[in-house]
Amino acid sequence: LRFTHCTLMDCSVVSALCCFTALYLVVCFLCLIFADADLTLTWSCVAGHRPETRLRGLVVWITGASSGIGEELAYQLAKCGSRLILSARRENELNRVKRQCIDDSDLQDEDILVLPLDLLDMTSHEEKSKTAIQCFGHIDVLINNGGRSQRSLCLETSVDVYQALMELNFLGTVSITKQVLPHMTQRRTGSIVTVSSVVGLAGAPLATGYSASKHALQGFFNSLRTELTDYPNILISTVCPGPVQSQIVHNAFTEELDKPLTTAGNQEHKMPTSRCVHLMLVGIANGVKEMWIAQQPFLFFYYAWQYTPTFAWFITNMLGRKRVQNFKAGLDADSAYFTKSKKT
Questions:
Q1: What is the pLDDT of residue 205?
Q2: 342 part of a folded domain
Q3: Tens digits of per-residue pLDDT, 267-314?
Q4: Is the pLDDT of residue 236 over 90?
Q5: Which of 22, 173, 189, 325 is deepest in the core (most CB within 10 A)?
């Protein structure tokens, strides 16, 4: 009888574990289907710290703050009560963003510094960083958001374009980071958040140079994070968005340095900028080291590339061909992954 009783208990435990495992897998599968961020970031949205409480009063330096994700970051951080340093090349646009931040939040004029910055002018970065630090006494968060994308085929693209992409997206970001990092290590606290891309994890046609620059950022900051193990309160975080509604496509490099993109195509099918930025701020507030932010099918691609690369290659090659066809037809290249798009 005792043996039978123990056997029944063991069966009950095994059955409970099986049910729990099945339920866990179902929840994960549903999250994969319906979520627009990786599981860690999704969980942070549900049960983590709120940005408006964790980021209030912090000093945040945003590069590329004059449009797109950088501009939206300024607006949402202002509502969180963060003090801001806004940088980009266009000072008039930065002043516009500053005025909007003040109108939409409790911040005052002295809470926002407009600091024009050219990522390519690396000789100016030391002076700009000193100005940023002196304004508020310290920098809590550096968000490396400045950069440009690319829309051109490799066979048609000048090497000058590749050089410009690497100097702007990679070396410019590294230069600013190296100016701010000693300040953070001295204080033994801070966050360096860098906007990478889905193509920083997996390549995509029409973006060979852009993808290379984002792969370089991934390698640099992953390595830097391991160098800072003695500074547990310094967060090194990379953000990998899929397609987002922003100006990055409009300003993309083409096959020649000074040749503008003919048409950016319809952007309505992409993730709203406000949603992407909200997820970024949740990740920063909760110390997420790498954020995957994307609607389907892109989020599925992240996991496919991580766990089933052979299958991922098959899907990428199939959709990549369509992406090139869309580009040549004057459509938005990313619409290959969505429903049919109309020419703009």
A1: 92
A2: no
A3: 677 899 999 999 999 999 999 999 999 998 889 888 898 899 999 998
A4: yes
A5: 173
User: Structurally, how many domains does the chain consist of?
Assistant: 1
Pairing of strands 141-144, 190-195: parallel
pLDDT value at residue 317: 86
Query: Any idea what the CATH number is for the domain that residue 98 is in?
Result: 3.40.50.720
Interacting residues of 334 by C-beta distance below 8 A, sequence separation 6+: 243, 265, 269, 270, 323
Q: Give me the active site residues, please.
A: 210
At 337, is the pLDDT very low, low, confident or very high (cuts 50, 70, 90)?
Answer: low
Provide the token pair at 201. Answer: 């994890």
pLDDT score recorded for residue 340: 47
The per-residue pLDDT for 7 is 62
pTM of the model: 0.89
Q: Is residue 163 part of a domain?
A: yes
Name the average pLDDT for the chain: 90
Of 60, 63, 95, the closest CA to residue 77 belongs to 60
- 223 lies in a domain? yes
How far is the C-alpha of 228 from the C-alpha of 55, rounded, in Å?
Answer: 22
Pick from 3-7, 67-71, 130-134, 313-317: least confident: 3-7
Classify burial at 122, counting beta carbons within 10 Å of its beta carbon; exposed 0-12, middle 13-18, buried 19 or more: middle
Domain region containing 289: 34-309
Does residue 96 lie in a domain region?
yes
Please state, in angstroms and rounded to a whole number, the distance separating the CA atoms of residues 83 and 207: 35
